[in-house]
Amino acid sequence: MEILNVKTRQIKGKKVATLREQGEIPAVLYGVGIEPQSISLPLKEFQKIFKTVGETALLSLVVDSTEPRTVLIRDVQNDAMKQLPIHVDFHQVNMNEELDLDVPLEFTGTSVAVSSEGGILVKALYELPISALPADLPHEIIIDIAPLEKIGDAIHVRDIKLPKGVKVCLDEDQTIAFIEKPMSEEELAALETPVELKVDEVEVVGEKEKKEAEEAAAALEAEEKEK
User: Fold this and answer.
1) Which intervals hold domain Large ribosomal subunit protein bL25 beta (predicted)?
2) Is residue 195 part of a domain?
3) Residue 194 domain-assigned?
């Protein structure tokens, strides 16, 4: 289990901008049975560990050199421009209580339907909602696409071999991935054909209404003259 050292944070509110200027990230530690605690940690250290654990692997968090706490990274806010973390939430877990998480799917292997028949692999899901005890949480779930041998073949939730202690929170008939037939030459050509618009075929908005109004006005004027 990765270890991350953090420290108690006294600076709060808008003043946390000074922390970021110093290469630190403001964060919060919370969980069942504990009071939320404001903390901070080095940006570079967090980036290094986050690449390894993501939001589905357990992490040992040490606050001010005290006893390690088992946590999950639950939310990472990023700067819209720089795409750097600017705030992190850590959730201290109870090892005896199940957690509900979305775990990334990792597609591996080679499908004959794709390599030989020109089929297109369509991924219906990229994450899988699961339930498990913290100790049983997988970092990712591997999906082997080798069984997809012909056009129309699909992998469903019921086909996944799950790690011990992990339950999927989806219907077993839910499709995860399937092979779609390639587009024909005619369909591809139709996509590449430019659409031509002729000026005389374009109806000017309001032109018809304008003409009708002019005709009505002329008819009314003619009636007035006859009186």
Assistant:
1) 99-182
2) no
3) no
Same domain, 74 and 150: no
**Interatomic CA distance for residues 114 and 144, integer angstroms:** 13
* Amino acid identity at 181: K
C-alpha span between 200 and 1 (Å, rounded): 71
Tracing tokens 């054909």 back to the chain, one arrives at: 193
**Which are the contacts of 96, defined by CB distance < 8 A and separation ≥ 6?**
133
Q: What is the pLDDT along the chain (227 residues), one digit of tens a residue?
A: 899 999 999 888 888 888 898 999 999 999 988 899 999 999 999 999 999 898 888 999 999 988 999 999 989 999 888 889 999 999 999 999 999 999 999 999 999 999 988 899 999 999 999 999 999 999 899 999 999 999 999 999 999 999 999 999 999 999 999 999 887 667 667 767 666 655 555 555 456 555 666 666 565 555 555 55
Tokens 């969980």 sit on residue: 31
Range of the structural domain that residue 121 is part of: 99-186
Distance of CA 117 to the CA centre of its chain: 30
Q: Is residue 191 part of a domain?
A: no
Half-sphere exposure of 198 (CA within 13 A, CB side): 2
Global pTM value: 0.70
| Domain boundary residue, one of 71, 92, 113 | 92
Distance CA 3, CA 56 (A): 15
Q: In terms of domains, do 125 and 75 share one? A: no
Rounded Cα–Cα distance for residues 51 and 197 (Å): 51
